[in-house]
């Protein structure tokens, strides 16, 4: 919790005003019992009306000052606490969005959501309580005890008895409740996870008729949370009757002892009344402090979870400025690249080398789990290669600043992801200053123009969260338009055509030539038809390159590629492709043939 207090620095002057107001409130409030004792002893008993009026006016003035000071301290406590929570929430969010994919795997999405919302709220609530009580309660406690001792020395032992009773009850409650708060936060995480999974995968749940199973899982976790909350509430509710018993007990003691002393000296009446009020202040101070101590452990658990996110050192570090001079001509090159996930024994990628040039399309194909998407993710540094080099424009990606590298890349994920807003804001997501004409051009190339023009507000039409009001194919086309609008040096399509029909796929790839003449195009695909005309096809199998070349060249020499093509074509279509491949000669083979013919002619 203490580590998070650094977020209070911008509000130090407001905290100072709060503390001053609290000190004034405490002083004015604690003066009232003494004045009341004076009224009784020096006004009521002797019958001095003027003294009663003068002292009464002082009490009214002090009460007004106390009320105003209480308002000022409460206002600044709420203001500082709210801004403090806002800054923590922002810091957590910024930290999360700067995590790479490996960092995110250390925290579940549900846990990160809970930490950003529920945990920050817990810290905010306790911080406001601390700002309100951290000076008020100790001041009330210390000054009340001093004033009580000075007012009625014969009754001091009552304060000791009441204080010990209050502290004992607080310690008992804390010892029973504290271990349960961590379990409570973990169950909240689990509830969030189950809810999020079911809302995201609702279609799958319904398609497999598994509502009962998911309901059973939710109810099981929810019941655990409910039982834990009932236990915590039961223990916390013990505080009220215990406090009531202690309060009433000390009041009775004060009355009993005070009455016995009044029989000896009636002038002791004012002192007894003031002492009773001071004892009440002492009890209230202990009560407020015990409430703080009970809620503090829960907030401490939340603070620990927040600090775990804020203190997480990212696995990838970026340079402030790009080192080296990237070439103007776009290129992507892998040099003997290996990759394995942390703590994994086997490599996902093994000795990958290729060069993708500007104006050319390089495609990647292979069976599921062959490492295609992982390979693509090394280019924008979602991961870092464990060996070898990944170069963009002849500069290693590790030597780029984050802004410089990302500005050069237009990335389209396998699952089209849209953000709440409008069609326009989604297409311009990577280039907010792009012109409307460029936006429309990007939509036309991405084959999205037709369905956008049919929308009620066209480019200003609403996009729901996650693009839920668009089909899978529409989301993919808008995602592609977003990448095109950025005008990058490198296009990365991670199986981004999978939701498109064959005709739309073909039209889109042909239209892409309009903007890819000076750009590198990297395509991960499952369909052979998508990559058939690529300038270079890289075939992956178990993380290794087993073939590299054009379609017919690979069909002629690469067994893995032959199996992939055969699985997607009919026997007749495959036979035609093989026949064409058998007649295919590479430019190198043609050059070699011409050289041999020339040599034979010269010899003749």
Overview of this structure, please?
The protein has helices at 12-44, 49-97, 101-104, 109-133, 136-151, 156-200, 202-207, 211-237, 239-262, 269-310, 372-377, 402-407, 423-427, 436-445, 449-453, 472-485, 502-512, 528-531, 551-557, 559-568, 571-583, 587-603; strands spanning 331-339, 349-357, 361-366, 387-392, 395-396, 409-412, 421-422, 462-463, 490-494, 520-524, 536-541, 544-549. With 604 residues, it is an alpha/beta fold. It has two domains: 2-310, ABC transporter type 1, transmembrane domain (ABC transporter transmembrane region fold, Up-down Bundle), CATH 1.20.1560.10; 331-557, P-loop containing nucleotide triphosphate hydrolases (Rossmann fold, 3-Layer(aba) Sandwich), CATH 3.40.50.300. The strands form three sheets. The protein has a six-stranded mixed sheet. It has a four-stranded antiparallel sheet with strand order 2-1-4-5, with no helix packed on it. A two-stranded antiparallel ribbon has the order 7-8. α1 packs antiparallel against α2. The radius of gyration is 37 Å and the shape is elongated. It starts with 11 loop residues before the first helix and ends with a helix.
């Amino acid at each position: 919790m203490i580590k998070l207090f650094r977020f209070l620095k911008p509000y130090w002057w407001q905290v100072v005003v709060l503390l001053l107001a609290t000190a004034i409130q405490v002083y004015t409030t604690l003066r009232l019992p003494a004045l009341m004792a004076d009224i009784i002893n020096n006004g009521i008993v002797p019958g001095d009306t003027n003294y009663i009026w003068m002292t009464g006016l002082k009490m009214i003035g002090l009460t007004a000052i106390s009320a105003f000071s209480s308002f000022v301290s409460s206002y600044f406590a709420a203001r500082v606490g709210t801004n403090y929570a806002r800054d923590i929430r922002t810091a957590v969010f910024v930290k999360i969005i700067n995590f790479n994919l490996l960092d995110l795997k250390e925290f579940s999405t549900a846990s990160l959501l809970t930490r950003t919302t529920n945990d920050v709220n817990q810290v905010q609530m306790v911080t406001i309580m601390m700002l309100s009580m951290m000076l008020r309660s100790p001041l009330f406690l210390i000054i009340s005890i001093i004033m009580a001792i000075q007012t009625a020395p014969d009754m001091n032992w009552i304060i000791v008895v009441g204080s010990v009773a209050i502290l004992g009850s607080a310690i008992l409650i804390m010892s029973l409740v504290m271990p349960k708060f961590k379990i409570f936060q973990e169950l909240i995480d689990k509830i969030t996870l189950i809810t999020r999974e079911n809302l995201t995968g609702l279609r799958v749940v319904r398609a497999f008729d598994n509502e009962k199973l998911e309901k059973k899982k939710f109810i099981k976790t929810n019941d655990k949370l409910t039982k834990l909350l009932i236990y915590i509430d039961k223990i916390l509710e013990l505080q009220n009757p215990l406090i009531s018993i202690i309060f009433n007990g000390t009041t009775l003691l004060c009355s009993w002892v005070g009455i016995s002393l009044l029989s000896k000296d009636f002038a002791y009446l004012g002192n007894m009344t003031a002492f009773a009020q001071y004892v009440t202040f002492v009890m209230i101070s202990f009560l407020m402090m015990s409430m703080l101590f009970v809620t503090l452990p829960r907030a401490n658990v939340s603070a620990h979870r927040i600090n775990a996110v804020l203190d997480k050192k990212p696995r990838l570090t970026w340079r402030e400025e790009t080192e080296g001079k990237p070439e103007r001509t776009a290129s992507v090159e892998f040099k003997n690249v290996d990759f394995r996930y942390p703590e994994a024994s086997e490599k996902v990628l093994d000795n990958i080398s290729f060069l993708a040039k500007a104006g050319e399309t390089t495609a990647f194909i292979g069976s599921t789990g062959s490492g295609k998407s992982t390979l693509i993710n090394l280019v924008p540094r979602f991961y870092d290669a464990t060996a070898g080099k990944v170069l963009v424009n002849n500069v290693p990606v590790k030597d780029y600043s984050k802004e410089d590298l990302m500005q050069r890349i237009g990335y389209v994920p396998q699952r089209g992801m849209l953000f709440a807003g409008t069609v326009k804001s989604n297409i311009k997501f990577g280039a907010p200053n792009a012109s409307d004409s460029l936006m429309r051009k990007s939509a036309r190339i991405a084959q999205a123009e037709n369905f956008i023009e049919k929308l009620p507000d066209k480019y200003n039409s609403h996009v729901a969260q996650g693009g839920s009001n668009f089909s899978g194919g529409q989301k993919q086309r808008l995602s592609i338009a977003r990448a095109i609008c950025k005008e990058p040096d490198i296009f990365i399509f991670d199986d981004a055509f999978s939701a498109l029909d064959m005709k739309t796929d073909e039209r889109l790839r042909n239209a892409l030539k309009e903007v890819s003449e000076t750009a590198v195009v990297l395509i991960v695909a499952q369909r052979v038809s998508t990559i058939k005309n690529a300038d270079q096809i890289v075939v992956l199998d178990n993380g290794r390159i087993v073939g590299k070349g054009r379609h017919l060249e690979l069909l002629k020499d690469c067994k893995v590629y032959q199996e992939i093509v055969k699985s997607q074509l009919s026997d007749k279509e495959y036979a035609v492709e093989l026949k064409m491949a058998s007649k295919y000669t590479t430019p190198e083979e043609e050059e070699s043939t011409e050289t041999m013919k020339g040599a034979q002619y010269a010899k003749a």
